[in-house]
Design goal:
The chain has 9 helices and 8 strands. β5, α6 and β6 form a beta-alpha-beta unit. Keywords: Methyltransferase, Transferase.
Length: about 240
């Protein structure tokens, strides 16, 4: 895939993946983050979740870490006047902390669930937790269309029990799991559709390929949403 074309589509989207306020609120309540707590948004993208995280720690702070410089710059500009937010460009696999919560919306797969949680253990404050969303099968018999999509995009996809097993392998206990809502997905896909419509006229061959792949991603999820999605998991080290 042509990465310049890829970022032409994705860099200006309001968020880098599915997420929603209700799921975030559920996760932070389950984790028991204190009002003066420290939260890390690991793989924050353009910073779509930072404001909601900050609202849960009215006397605390949020540190957001993003590897992609353009996203990090966008998130930093968005919160330039908020002293309780620090955004930095860097590797989310090398967090230092201590944090009461590490939040990662659809980004932990870059490290792998077990590997990422193992690395993050040292960055958690005593009693701290991790909340992350991960692609997940919701059926044991996915359709050929759904299977073909994930075989191409992320063949490591597993089900809720498989994600729980990866969490346990890192020495964590699962506190709770729940699927992200359809609204979380549409909140991600609808701005993408508008961006596709804007970019399609006169698109180069490379950009047209990226736009077609994004359209296929959207259409496949809408057709197969009962078969897969993102599972939000909250876990704490044993």
């Amino acid at each position: 895939m042509d990465m310049e074309a890829f970022f032409t589509l994705y860099d200006d989207l309001p968020r880098g993946g599915p997420s929603d306020g209700d799921s975030l609120d559920w996760a932070l309540a389950l984790a028991g983050v204190p009002a003066d707590g420290a939260i890390c948004d690991a793989g924050c993208g353009p910073g779509a979740d930072i404001a909601a995280l900050l609202a849960h720690v009215p006397r605390g702070r949020v540190e957001a870490v993003e590897l992609h410089p353009h996203y990090a710059d966008r998130a930093a500009a968005r919160f330039a006047d908020e002293p309780r937010v620090r955004v930095r460009q860097g590797d989310m696999g090398a967090l230092t902390g201590p944090f009461d919560l590490i939040w990662s919306a659809g980004a932990l797969y870059f490290l792998g669930v077990t590997e990422g949680l193992s690395r993050w253990r040292a960055a958690l404050a005593p009693g701290g937790a991790v909340a992350f969303s991960e692609a997940c099968w919701f059926t044991a018999t996915p359709s050929a269309r759904a299977r073909a999509f994930w075989d191409r995009e992320y063949p490591q996809i597993t089900d809720a029990a498989g994600i729980a097993a990866q969490v346990e392998a890192a020495g964590y206990t699962v506190l709770g799991q729940r699927p992200l809502s359809d609204a979380a997905w549409e909140g991600y896909f609808q701005p993408m559709e508008r961006q596709i419509a804007t970019l399609s006229p006169g698109a180069s061959a490379a950009l047209a390929d990226v736009l077609a792949a994004a359209e296929d991603e959207i259409a496949t999820w809408r057709a197969c949403r009962a078969e897969y999605g993102y599972l939000l998991t909250v876990a704490r080290p044993r």
